[in-house]
UniProtKB/TrEMBL annotation:
Residues 13-179 form the Nitroreductase domain. This is Nitroreductase family protein. PANTHER family: NAD(P)H NITROREDUCTASE YDGI-RELATED, NADH DEHYDROGENASE_NAD(P)H NITROREDUCTASE XCC3605-RELATED. Belongs to the nitroreductase family. It comes from the Bacteria. Keywords: Oxidoreductase. CDD domains: Nitro_FMN_reductase (cd02062). SUPFAM superfamilies: FMN-dependent nitroreductase-like (SSF55469).
Length: 212
C-alpha cells in the first residue's frame, strides 16, 4: 500500500528524517525489500548493476555502525560551528535547526530499526580522475530507495559520515575490500505528517543558460 502522492509531491516532500524516526516500531523486512526492488530500476553505467545492498537489522551490528557514525559525527560537529559563523543570520538559523536534528540522529543511529548501506563493486582502488560515472551507478538508486520508502510511510536520511570509518564498518559487516560503501540510509516509520517542500534559493541564482 503506497500513499496517494503525485510524482511532484513525492519528489518535493521526501525529506531527510532524523528526529522523527520511530525508534520503537519494527519495520517489516518485506517493506524494505519492496523499496529495494524499486531502487534496482535505477540506471547504471553500461547497465552494469554492480551495486550491493547491506540491510542491517541485528541490534548488535546496528549499534556497531551507530558507534562509528557517532565518532565521526563528533569530529564533524566540532568544525560545523566555525563554518556556520560565516553564514547569514537566516542561514545560521536554518543551520541551527538542522544541527539539532542531526545531533539527535547521531545519538540514536544505532537504535534505528533498519540501516541500509548502499555499496558498489569498485576494486581495491577507486578509478583515477572524475568518478561521476562510478557513483552515478549507485547514488540514483539510493535516492529511489528513499522515494519508495516515503511512498510506503517510511522515513530515511542520507548520511555519509560513517565513511570516515568505512574499513572498520566493512570489516564488522563482512563486506569484501573490492566493494565500497556509498551512503548509509537509516530507515524507520516516522511520526507526524508535516512533510512539505523545503526552502531553497531561487532557481535563477543557480541557473546558467548556455554559458556560465
Amino acid at each position: 500500500m503506497t500513499l496517494p502522492l503525485s510524482p511532484d509531491e513525492l519528489l518535493t516532500t521526501t525529506r531527510s528524517v532524523r528526529k522523527r524516526l520511530d525508534l520503537e516500531r519494527p519495520v517489516p523486512i518485506e517493506l524494505v525489500r519492496e523499496c529495494l526492488e524499486v531502487a534496482l530500476q535505477a540506471p547504471t553505467g553500461s547497465n552494469s548493476q554492480n551495486w550491493h545492498w547491506v540491510v542491517i537489522t541485528d541490534a548488535g551490528l546496528r549499534r556497531t555502525v551507530g558507534d562509528y557514525y557517532k565518532r565521526s559525527y563528533d569530529a564533524y560537529s566540532d568544525q560545523r560551528a566555525a563554518r556556520n559563523a560565516a553564514l547569514s543570520a537566516e542561514r545560521q538559523a536554518v543551520g541551527a535547526r538542522v544541527a539539532t536534528s542531526a545531533d539527535h540522529l547521531a545519538e540514536h543511529m544505532g537504535d534505528v530499526p533498519v540501516l541500509v548501506l548502499a555499496c558498489i563493486t569498485v576494486g581495491e582502488d577507486f578509478p583515477p580522475g572524475n568518478q561521476a560515472g562510478l557513483w552515478g551507478s549507485l547514488l540514483p538508486a539510493a535516492w529511489s530507495y528513499q522515494l519508495a520508502a516515503r511512498a510506503r510511510g517510511l522515513g530515511s536520511a542520507w548520511t555519509t559520515l560513517h565513511l570516515a570509518y568505512e574499513k572498520e564498518v566493512g570489516e564488522a559487516l563482512g563486506i569484501p575490500p573490492h566493494v565500497r560503501q556509498g551512503v548509509l540510509l537509516p530507515t524507520a516509520y516516522y511520526t507526524g505528517e508535516t512533510f512539505k517542500p523545503a526552502p531553497r534559493e531561487p532557481l535563477d541564482t543557480v541557473l546558467h543558460l548556455d554559458t556560465w
